[in-house]
Amino acid sequence: RSEVKGPYKLLKVRNLELSDAGIYTCKYGSHKVHTSLHVFKLTISLGGHFLQNEVPELTLMHNSPHPLLDLRITLFNSNNNMVTPEIEKKDHQKYILNLKKLEATDSGTWVCHVHSDSPLINQNISFAVKVLGFQNPDLERKYATVDSTVILPWRLNFRKITWKEGFTGQLSWKQHESANSHDLLDFNITAQGEQHETKKRSHFLFEIPERKPENTIEVKLPQVHFNHSGQYQCQLTYKGRHVQSKIELVVMKVSANPVGPLSRGANMTLICQVSSLLPPNAHLLWERVNGTQRDIKNSKQYEAKLEVNISAAGLWSCHLIEGNDRKISLHYHVEEAAVWTSYVVTGASVVGSVLVFALVCLCIISGMQWQRRRQQAKRMAQARQYLLENKTCQCQQ
Q1: From CA 332, how far away is CA 273, in angstroms rounded?
Q2: Residue 375 lies in a domain
Q3: pLDDT tens per residue across span 140-167
C-alpha cells in the first residue's frame, strides 16, 4: 500500500489504517529525519442513514506514537453551525460522541475538527449524514369548517437528499388519542424514487389527489364533517425503524337555538363549537357584522364551545383566532321574523276571522233550524189534541 515517488523520495501510503501510525525515519547518509504519523478513524452509526428524530453515534479512534492528552474535538453540521456533542471518552485512543436528535434539515456533509497543541494537529474529517423524514413538523394543527374542502399534505425529503434506498409508509386516522386507528392508504418508494399508493377500504370518505407536488403524500376531504376531526398520521418505515408526522384536524361548526327567524323582542342563542380543546394562545370570538363592541364575545382559555345570547338580527360571525392570526370563520345569518312573517300573520288573522264568522253563522242557522223544528212539533201536538177532542164528541151523539 506504499511507494516512494519522485526525486524527493516522497512516501505515499494508500488506504491508511490505524496500524500505519508511528514514527517514520528517512535516512540519507549520516542524516536522519523523523516524522510522526497520527492516524484517525471516524465511524458513524447506521452507516450514516438515519430517520428523523434518531440519535447518531460517532466513534473517533486514533493511533499515535505518543498519547494525545489535550485532544479537542469540534463538530460542524451541514449548515456549518457548531454542534456540541456529548463526548464519552473511553481511553486515550477512543472517543464516543453522542449527538442530539436529528432533523430532516440536518442532511448533508458534516465535519469533525480534531485539534491538538502538542504535537500540533489540525485535522478536518468530513462525513455524510442522510436524514429521511418530513418537511412538516412532527405535529401540525390544521383548521377547517364544516362542509368545506381540505387537503392534508405530508412533504417527504427523499429526493432532496438523494436517498437511494427503498422504504414504505402508511397513512392512518383516529378521532382522539385513545381511539382505534383506521388505515387510509399504504405507499412505497422504490430505490429509483418511484412512488406508489394504495387506498385501503374504509367507510371514511376521502380522495387521493391526482395532481400534487412531487415527494408529497396527500389526502383530500371533499366535504368535511364534524366527526372527520382527529389525528392523521403519516408513518415512514425503513429497515424496521419508524418515524411519524401528525396533522391534527380541528373542525368548527355553528348552530342556533331555537332555529329560525328571530321575533321582535325575543332572544336566540348562537353556538360556535370546535372539535377539540384549543391551545393556550387560541380562542373563539363571536361578533355581529357592522355591530358594536357590545356585540363581541370571546371564549375563555381552553374553551372549545362559545355561546352568545342575541336579540338583534343580522349577520353574525364566529372566528377562531390563534395568536394574532384569524385561522377560520363561519357565518350565521339571523333573519328578523317581521321581515318575512307579516304576510303570514295577516293571512292567519284573516283566515281566523273568516273561520270565526263562519262558525257564528253556522251556530245561528243551527239555532234557527232547531227553533223551527220545535215550533212545528208543538203545532202537530196541538192538532192531534184537537182531533182527539172532536172525535170523542161525535161518539157521544
Answers
A1: 13
A2: no
A3: 999 999 999 999 999 999 999 999 999 9
Q: Are 237 and 166 in contact (CB under 8 A)?
A: no
pTM over 0.85: no
Alpha-carbon span 166 to 337, nearest angstrom = 65
Q: Is the pLDDT of residue 391 over 70?
A: no
Residue 5: all three cell numbers together: 515517488
Most confident of 191-205, 206-220, 242-256: 242-256
Total domain count for the chain? Answer: 3
CATH number at residue 154: 2.60.40.10
C-alpha cell at 130: 442522510
Compute CA distances 320 → 25, 184, 292, 305, whole Å.
77, 28, 19, 11
Instruction: Residue 89: count other Cβ atoms within 10 Å of its Cβ.
Output: 12
Please state, in angstroms and rounded to a whole number, the distance separating the CA atoms of residues 319 and 310. 17
3-state secondary structure at position 264: coil
Q: What confidence category does residue 340 fall into, taking pLDDT thresholds of 50, 70 and 90?
A: very low
Distances (CA, A) of 15 to 20, 39, 70, 163: 10, 11, 27, 27
